[in-house]
């Protein structure tokens, strides 16, 4: 009888717990939403990120942006030499990034669990010095193109290289700070070329880096001027021999 008489008490306790949860849950949910919004907003804050690499600051796109800001500051009466401006900017950027890292650190496990590590810091400056990827092979002593980024004629491995998820990597590998990744990237395609083109002796991989034309130069028909960057010539026979038993 005690068990029977106690049963309504248990049911009553459960009812109270459900009532408490119903009252608390809207407030708890609001807190969780606010924490989520804060977490993703912090990660999206403008910050140097991987831009804190001094070797990348020598790229023409970066130096042009620095020059433009020095010119703006000069118009406001603040004068810096190129070296002074870079040192001041480095100090400010590093201090700011260190502060962002402190705020973001507690949320790192949450980002990993949700798969939301991408910050979406995009379009910080116009890219006036783009680079076009080229792959070429040598057959019978003659070079011929296999792939030229953006070409409708030379499209070897285009299903991979032209994919949206590949483009960000191709953009990065043109920068000197990603030299090691560029070597891995081009070496993999050399292995593919060694298999698909048995008569080819070498693969040549490089970026053609150029400065975009101004509207006036475009209307005047000025030709683009550029140079090869990150050029690699890989002997394919060596790769084939590695695959031999």
Structure description:
The model has no long low-confidence stretch (mean pLDDT about 85). The protein folds into 2 domains: about 45-115; about 130-240, no CATH class. The protein has a 4-stranded antiparallel sheet with strand order 2-1-3-4. The chain is an alpha+beta fold. It has 9 helices and 4 strands. It has helices at about 1-45, 60-75, 80-105, 110-115, 160, 165-170, 180-195, 215-220, 235-240; strands spanning about 130-140, 140-150, 200-210, 225-235.
Q: Quick summary of this structure?
A:
This protein is of the alpha+beta class and about 240 residues long. The chain has helices spanning about 1-45, 60-75, 80-105, 110-115, 160, 165-170, 180-195, 215-220, 235-240; strands at about 130-140, 140-150, 200-210, 225-235.
In angstroms, what is the radius of gyration?
28 Å
Model regions low in confidence, pLDDT < 50 over at least 5 residues = none
Mean pLDDT: 85
CA-based shape: extended
Number of domains: 2
Q: Strand portion, in percent?
A: 15-25%
Tally of extended strands? 4
Distance between the termini: 83 Å
């Amino acid at each position: 009888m005690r068990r029977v008489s106690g049963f309504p008490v248990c049911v009553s306790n459960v009812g109270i717990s459900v009532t408490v949860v119903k009252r608390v849950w809207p407030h708890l949910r609001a807190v969780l939403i606010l924490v989520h919004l804060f977490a993703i907003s912090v990660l999206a804050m403008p910050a140097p990120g991987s831009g804190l690499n001094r070797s990348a600051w020598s790229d023409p796109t970066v130096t042009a942006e620095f020059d433009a800001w020095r010119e703006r500051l000069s118009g406001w009466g603040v004068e810096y030499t190129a070296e002074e401006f870079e040192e001041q900017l480095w100090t400010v950027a590093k201090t700011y990034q260190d502060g962002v890292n402190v705020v973001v650190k507690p949320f790192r496990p949450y980002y990993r669990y949700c798969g939301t590590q991408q910050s979406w810091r995009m379009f910080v400056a116009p890219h006036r010095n783009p680079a076009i990827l080229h792959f070429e092979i040598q057959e019978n002593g003659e070079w011929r193109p296999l792939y030229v980024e953006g070409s409708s004629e030379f499209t070897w491995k285009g299903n991979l290289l032209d994919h949206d998820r590949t483009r960000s990597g191709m953009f990065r590998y043109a920068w000197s700070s990603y030299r090691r990744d560029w070597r891995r990237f081009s070496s993999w395609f050399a292995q593919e070329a060694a298999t698909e083109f048995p008569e080819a002796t070498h693969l040549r991989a490089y970026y053609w880096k150029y400065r975009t034309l101004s509207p006036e130069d475009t209307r005047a028909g000025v030709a683009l001027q550029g140079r090869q960057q990150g050029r690699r010539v890989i002997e394919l026979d060596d790769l084939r021999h590695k695959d031999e038993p």
